[in-house]
Structure formats: structure tokens, C-alpha cells
């Protein structure tokens, strides 16, 4: 990892693993264009010059650098003081204290840890996201891909959401890019075949008796006629330029995936780290355009995630590991309504770490299957320590910081129950690992 302490705070982050050819996503600052370097802050407060370079590389990627310069290689350990300086710059002070306690309880030299922690106590949190890198040519550039008018296949699995699917299909009727087909895999009961007759779309609808999200998406991929596959949810709304913005992004950056952004309330602001182009560290199959050749190289979605969580996250990591470029696209927006009935709501949990019953596994077993398969036992344990205590409170408090802290405190009092839940998830994820991935080829 770029800095060792990231293993505590981002143990299962895409960028913590090298992609194709054992390369890191982080650019070598010495290879960056001067125009990019001038927008980065060289922090001479680090003890080691290597830390200065690593920090510049971190800034470049997280401020939105997308390019083909040489990647950093031969990452070496830096001083403990520089590690603390780095996390103080980019993470909340609560997490800095968490790392300190974790290090001390892991039998690291407490004097050395406390000295480094104290030496960096005056470091201020960076506001680097307020000044992301810009791509001034975006607005005026003519897209040759758009001019070639390729076929796009819009893929929508649906389950008991006809009221919302009506708006979804209406939004697609109003797209200003016209060369697309819509493939709907309907799992609803009762199945209303007449519902689809009202729409003026190139529409292919198939009924799937089995309630299975990833089977539905895999089936639609096989049926798709387009070389560009656009994944959409049945409880979302988009603007008229949605398809066009996805295609333009692929062309502008010569990328294989365009990952759109989502908001859950009308008028809500897009989170700061999604307001600009950047190399994406996730893939959301409710709003992503993927070239067909990606599936031909990495396979379809893993059906080990049926009725559970993180199937798209796992696929996104496979895309990253093979070296394909996935761009976070702020211009391909959707409103994700997250309705409380139908879809995965009827088949599983609302959240990867929150359970529906006291003695249910925590997290959902597929989450640990994903973590353990790609990141190993140690990092999976770090991910559990970082996430489980804050998952005690219900989903509706997910963004309420005081309630999350209360949940962490409550977890101390119900510690035996939490241990049981985690052990159950670990056991069930182990069974998945033993069975292996269920990934078909295209």
C-alpha cells in the first residue's frame, strides 16, 4: 500500500492492490505534467522525501488525475511519524486515535507510537477535495464515439416495482441519444406482460421465475446486441442526456467503464468526492456503462452474491485488477429512490453490515467472501474492526454520526452477540470460498 497505515483505514480498498502487470494506480510524481504538479501541494513537513512523493501521488489520484504516466513502483516503508502525518491530513481525528490504539494494542512500541502521534498533533486536515483537477476540454470536445452512433444495451432487472419502472422507462423514452435497446428481466409476481405495451422503445422483456439479481443481469448480458452495456436499476430517475454523457466519458478518457454518480433525494448535493472526474474505486450496477469486451475478459457477475451484497463491488475489482480504466463520471447522474419494497429489498438486507435479526450473520456472508478472497485474512479482520461496531444502529441512521458512535458503544455491551454474528458470517463465507466463484464466461 502507498502508506502502511492505510491497511487499518482502507483495508479492502481497490487501490490497495496492484492492477495488471503488478502496477499501482498511483502515478510517479516525477512523470506528471507540470500543469498537474502545479495543482498539487508539496508537503515538506514529512521527514522522508519518499513520503513527499507518495503524498503527491495520493493527491493526484484523489483529486482526479487520469493519465498514462509511469506508475509508482518499489514502494518502501516510511517513518511512523510520516504515517501519522499522512492519516491526519486525510482522515478524521477519530480515525487517527483509532489507529494509535490499534497499534498500541498490537504491541507496537508505545513510546515510539505516542511520540509520532504527538509530533504530528498540529497537522491540519487537508481540504484538497475543494480544488479538484479540471478537464477544460470536456465541454467543447466533439466525441467521435457519439458520432459513430454505437448500439447501447440498457439492462434492467426488476422485481415487483411496476409503479417505479414506469418512470424508468419513460425517462429512457426521452433520451436525446436514440440508438439503444432496453433489456428487462422481470421477476415480478404476478408478471404483467401488458405493462410493457405502452412504451415506445426498442424493448426486449423476458420473465425469470427464479428471484435472482445476478442471474438476471448475466442473462441480459448474453441477450444484449450492443457493444456497450448500460446497467440501470428499476427505482431510478435520470435526465435526458444520461446515455450520451456515459458514452462521451468513455470516449474522452479512452476508458472501458463509466461509473455514474447517485443521489437519493431530489435536490440533494452530490458528495464532494463524486463531483469531478477521477479513477473510480467502485462500480455501481445501478448506473454504469461497460464495454462488452470487459465481460469477455473478466467473465460475468459472480453468482455467489445472489440474494446478498457486493456483487458489483467484486466485479469492479476484477475490472481494476486486469487493468481496465473505470472513470467516476459526475455528468451521468441518477436519482436512486431506494424504495422500501421490491428488488433486493425483498430478497436480502438493505446493507452489507446490518442484519435483520439478532442471530443473523454480521456482515452479510458474501461481504466476507469478497474480502477474504481478494484481501486475505488480516485485512478482512481490519475491515470488520472498522465497520462492525458502527453497523449496530439501523440503516436509517447510516449517515447520523452521533448515532453511529452510540452504536459503537452499544457494541461493547453486546460484545458476545456481535462475536457470534461475526463468527457465523466467517463460517458461511468460508463455505463460499471452499465452493469457489460461480463466474460464467461470455
Automatic annotation (TrEMBL):
Entry-linked SUPFAM superfamilies: Nucleotide-diphospho-sugar transferases
Superkingdom in the source lineage: Bacteria
Keyword terms, alphabetized: Membrane, Transmembrane, Transmembrane helix
Membrane-spanning ranges: 403-423
Boundaries of every Glycosyltransferase 2-like domain copy: 153-264
Pfam families from the UniProt entry: Glycos_transf_2
The keyword Membrane is annotated on this UniProt entry: yes
Name of protein: Glycosyltransferase 2-like domain-containing protein
Organism listed in the record: Snuella lapsa
